[in-house]
UniProtKB/TrEMBL annotation:
Residues 273-286 form the SRP54-type proteins GTP-binding domain. This is Signal recognition particle receptor FtsY. It catalyses: GTP + H2O = GDP + phosphate + H(+). The chain holds residues 99 to 398 of 399 of the full protein. It is found in: Cell membrane; Cytoplasm. GO terms for cellular component: cytoplasm; plasma membrane. Part of the signal recognition particle protein translocation system, which is composed of SRP and FtsY. It is a peripheral membrane protein. One of its GO terms (molecular function) is GTPase activity. Involved in targeting and insertion of nascent membrane proteins into the cytoplasmic membrane. Acts as a receptor for the complex formed by the signal recognition particle (SRP) and the ribosome-nascent chain (RNC). The keyword Hydrolase applies. GTP binds at residues 108-115, 190-194, 252-255. It comes from Streptomyces sporangiiformans. It is an enzyme of class 3 (hydrolase). Its EC number is 3.6.5.4.
Length: 300
């Protein structure tokens, strides 16, 4: 965690440090507040959350009068924690029940890191003593099933796959069936994410979901978003939310951007918490999203 925190803070602290420096100016005039706004907008926090935060900061700084550095830091920390939703429940629901494994469907546009995230999540679960079945329902991208199976072999999870270009829903169905039969704790289903035809995506994901739910209800639908795509990610999020009920967001490639504000924007957009973050390409680079660590890394 310390290592992850260090990596996060390297990429993110432009935002928090910038805010603290600006707030520490002796005269907080309109120009400075505009700079504060710009800093938040540049970090992809989004227009409305930015305005709300700036309004609260203005009010609180006014009430405070003279400001010590510690007071300012504490105030900023508190407000940023509120902004990222420190109280949201971010548990990834993977608990098996008597009659069925926990079932998690992973969705998102190709290239966002869906397969990698599925593999990393399997690794975390296996390390936690859970048995995992992987469903390679991304039958569209030729290499996806191989990639997932490689992850499976690496972490010790069985992969269920179908014929190339086969029916994703039937792979998902088989994976859950297999999971039930062998008494697995968790079934993770990787799906395809072609966005160029929205109807195609809707049909396909909708079908995967319906077919899986013939076995048992889904416990989680995790939407994988690439943090470096900024506002584009929000557009994607909207489309997916129309098709399936997203229960959690995984924000990948947070290691490669200073635009951590997207956490705030996407949570607002979907009304769903960021549950996991991807902080690199390696197997250990998936972490729970921890608001406190995130905000501390922001402020530096
Ligand atoms: P998919 O098409 O959505 O399944 O995407 P992949 O899982 O194949 O990932 C696409 C690329 O993103 C790969 O090169 C991954 O190694 C990389 N990737 C995934 N997650 C992260 C992350 O958190 N950080 C970084 N830097 N790269 C990532």
């Amino acid at each position: 965690l310390v290592r992850l925190r260090a990596r996060l803070s390297r990429s993110q602290n432009a935002l928090g440090k910038g805010l603290l420096t600006l707030l520490s100016r002796e005269h907080l005039d309109d120009d400075t507040w505009e700079e504060i706004e710009d800093t938040l907008l540049t970090a992809d926090v989004g227009v409305q959350p930015t305005q709300e935060l700036v309004e609260r900061l203005r009010e609180r700084v006014k009430v405070l009068g003279t400001r010590t550095p510690d007071e300012l830091r504490g105030l900023l920390r508190e407000e940023l924690l509120t902004l990222v939703g420190a109280d949201l429940d971010r548990t990834v629901r993977t608990e098996p029940e008597a009659s069925k494994p926990g079932i998690v469907m992973v969705v998102g546009v190709n290239g966002t890191g869906k397969t990698t995230t599925t593999g990393k999540l399997a690794r975390v679960l296996v390390a936690d003593g859970r048995s995992v079945v992987l469903g390679a329902a991304d039958t569209f991208r030729a290499a996806a099933a191989d990639q997932l199976q490689t992850w499976g072999e690496r972490v010790g999870a069985h992969t269920v796959r179908g014929p190339e270009a086969g029916d994703p829903a039937s792979v998902a169905f088989d994976a859950v069936k297999e999971g039930k039969e062998i008494g697995a704790d968790v079934v993770l289903i990787d799906t395809a994410g072609r966005l160029h035809t929205k109807t195609g995506l809707m049909d396909e994901l909708g079908k995967v979901k319906r077919v899986v739910e013939k076995h048992a209800p889904l416990d989680e639908v995790l939407l994988v978003l690439d943090a470096t795509t900024g506002q584009n990610g929000l557009v994607q999020a909207r489309v997916f939310a129309e098709v399936v009920d997203i229960t959690g967001i995984v924000l990948t490639k947070l290691d490669g951007t200073a635009k951590g504000g997207i956490v705030v924007a996407v949570q607002r957009e979907l009304g769903v918490p960021v549950k996991l973050v991807g902080l690199g390409e390696g197997a250990d680079d998936l972490a729970p999203f921890e608001p406190e660590a995130f905000v501390d890394a922001l402020i530096g």
